[in-house]
Amino acid sequence: MSTVIYGLLEEEKQRNIEMLEMHKKEIGLLPKGAVVAQKINGGTYYYLRYRKGEKVMSEYLGNNEALIAETRKKVAKRKHLENIIKRLKLEYKQICKIVKD
Q1: Which among 24, 59, 25, 66 is positioned nearest to 45, based on CA atoms?
Q2: Which run of H or E residues covers position 3?
Q3: What does the DSSP 8-state code read for residue 33?
Q4: Residue 64 burial (10 A CB sphere; 0-12, 13-18, 19+)
């Protein structure tokens, strides 16, 4: 294999590792789960639901629309980053196969 191509693949592999670490740190700061609305006695109450081991946890968000919107935005960003991480891991595997690392 050409040393230029090999060098480029090694650089891409290192970039891939750095991006994985960066996205993993960012995910650690974002909430997991989903924002759900629950009707109780004619009122709508919002919760952040997520799994913690075997249990399903619910955090009350209240009726503050700004907080609910911000939480939804953060959850969506987390899901987007999780998809990016999946693609980066696949890309890393492919690079390792090519450079036989």
Answers
A1: 59
A2: helix 3-28
A3: S
A4: exposed
What range does the domain containing 11 cover? 3-99
- Kindly report which listed range (2-11, 72-81, 90-99) carries the lowest average pLDDT score: 2-11
Q: How far apart are CA 85 and CA 4, in angstroms?
A: 27
Angle at 57 between CA 52 and CA 62, to 5 degrees: 140
- This prediction has a pTM of 0.82
Residues 50 and 31 sit within 8 Å (Cβ to Cβ): yes
Q: Indicate whether 16 pLDDT > 90.
A: yes
Total domains in the chain come to: 1
The tens digit of pLDDT for each residue in 24-41 reads 999 999 999 999 999 989
Cα 74 from Cα 82, distance rounded (Å): 12
Angle, helices 3-28/65-99, rounded to nearest 10 degrees: 150
Percent of the chain clearing pLDDT 90 (strictly above): 75
SS3 46: strand
